[in-house]
Design a protein that fits this description.
Blueprint lengths: L12 E6 L4 E4 L9 E7 L2 H18 L1
Antiparallel strand pairs: 1-2, 1-3
Length: about 60
C-alpha cells in the first residue's frame, strides 16, 4: 500500500473510541488499538467524521 491508509475515500471507514471519549478515524483492515473500541462503521469518510462531530459535541455538552 502506498501512502497513508487515512487518505482517500474509496473504502469503508470506522470510528474508534476509548474510555475517555476520544475518537479516531480508522480503517477496517487495521487492528484496533488496545483500549479502543469500534463505535461507528460506514461506507464514507464524511459520514464517519459527521458521527464524530455529533458525539464529541454531545460529550462536551455533558461535561
Amino acid at each position: 500500500m502506498n501512502g497513508s491508509p487515512f487518505e482517500g475515500g474509496d473504502a469503508d471507514w470506522l470510528i474508534v473510541a476509548n474510555d475517555g471519549e476520544q475518537y479516531a478515524l480508522w480503517r477496517p483492515y487495521l487492528d484496533v488499538p488496545k483500549g479502543w473500541r469500534i463505535v461507528h462503521s460506514g461506507p464514507d469518510r464524511e459520514g464517519a467524521l459527521d458521527f464524530v462531530e455529533r458525539h464529541a459535541t454531545a460529550a462536551r455538552e455533558r461535561a
